[in-house]
Q: What sequence folds into this?
């Protein structure tokens, strides 16, 4: 998907920037407070955030405008619009193909062979990309204005140990060095991380070691989503704050 490649490049160029980042970017307090109940529920209650990827492609995050499928979106430069249009046409043709196959084989069969694997892919993608920038025991800063720099933003990313999935997915846990030097190929990321640790010193946060299955990351994920809700509208160095209503129960809507 050409459009996702472009927005991912934007993410790498602006990592850790509250206004300009493009991946699991924190919501300013004003935007957060104006969210309706259903949006808060779907965004901050497990497992719903782990299926956000298709919605993000369609309409981005709250407070941002545009769509990955619209070549005129402010996500893209004028020179990129033809590539986005090509991707959107291909995506549309794929939807037509899936609908056609559903009439031949039946919707239940298509759900089994395509729908369920797609949902597993979406869930894994959202979990991994979220934990690349959240889930550390200590709250990490986000930046605005003159306080932001490429280096400071890159150091807010988080390395994780994904157990046996490290090798299956090209050492995805070595995310800090990947953000600082995205030109390094995946097969050199572990070596580059080992070389960078003495240089980064206290600014490198060693990930907790995992067994074959990274069960500990479930706790990291739940803890972060329960506490990391929004950042202040003011200040150039900000940290996630917690809405106490969200960290507790969703039994009652706000105001009831």
A:
């Amino acid at each position: 998907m050409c459009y996702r490649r472009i927005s991912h490049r934007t993410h790498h160029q602006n990592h850790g920037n509250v206004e300009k980042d493009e991946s699991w970017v924190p919501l300013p307090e004003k935007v957060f407070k104006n969210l309706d109940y259903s949006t808060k529920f779907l965004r901050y209650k497990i497992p719903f955030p782990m299926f956000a990827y298709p919605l993000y492609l369609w309409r981005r995050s709250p407070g941002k405008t545009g769509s990955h499928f619209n070549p005129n979106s402010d996500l893209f430069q004028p020179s990129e619009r033809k590539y986005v249009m090509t991707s959107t046409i291909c995506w549309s043709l794929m939807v037509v193909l899936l609908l056609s196959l559903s009439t031949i084989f039946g919707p239940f069969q298509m759900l089994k062979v395509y729908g369920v694997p797609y949902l597993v892919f979406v869930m894994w993608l959202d979990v991994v990309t979220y934990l690349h920038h959240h889930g550390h025991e200590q709250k990490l800063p986000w930046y605005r204005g003159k306080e932001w720099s490429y280096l400071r933003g890159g150091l807010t990313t988080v390395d994780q140990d994904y157990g046996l999935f490290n090798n299956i997915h090209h050492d995805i846990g070595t995310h800090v060095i990947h953000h600082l030097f995205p030109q390094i190929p995946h097969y050199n990321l572990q070596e580059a991380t080992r070389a960078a640790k003495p240089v980064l010193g206290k600014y490198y946060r060693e990930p907790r070691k995992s067994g074959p299955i990274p069960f500990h990351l479930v706790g990291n994920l739940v803890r972060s989503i329960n506490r990391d809700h929004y950042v202040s509208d003011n200040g150039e160095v900000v940290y996630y704050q917690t809405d106490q209503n969200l960290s507790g129960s969703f039994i009652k809507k706000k105001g009831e």
